[in-house]
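Sequence decides. Consider this:

===
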Amino acid sequence: MERPPSYTRGTPDQVCLLHRCLYGLKQDPHAWFDKFHSTILALGFQQSLNDLSLFTRCTASRMVMLLLYVDDMIETGDDSEGIQALTAALHTSFNLKELGHVSYFLGIKVRQFPNGILLSQSKYIDDLLETVQFEDCHLVSTPMELHLKLGREAGELLTDSSKH
């Protein structure tokens, strides 16, 4: 960082004292996560031991979950009042932009239905085919039964798997 040209006090070898991180510095993501982490823990959430980007808050009958990826987050759970309270609390500490119900997250298309959720990576596959210039390739059927459920005990073991 260079001093502003209008700054004339001091000697040229003096540096500026930063009161917060500047955007683009190596320390910026770490400082942002530290602030987010302390804020979310103060709201009663616990960080998952298996996925450090997952935070949960459970009561006797309700649960709120927050999944964080860089600066994108998904809030979900069975406590709609808790989710609204979480959003309001995060608005006081951060400049949030609410995008409504999730439709894409990390390249995964999300569609919600009354009986479940469908996750699809079709756009990722299309982009990959375009990258390797296979977008106009011909489809070939797979020689496998439709709706086949494979299990650990299904089928016969190969006598010598090195020949196949």
Observations:
- The beta strands are 46-47, 54-58, 63-69, 72-77, 104-105, 108-113, 116-120.
- The radius of gyration is 25 Å.
- The chain has a mean pLDDT of 82.
- The helical segments are 28-42, 80-93, 122-131.
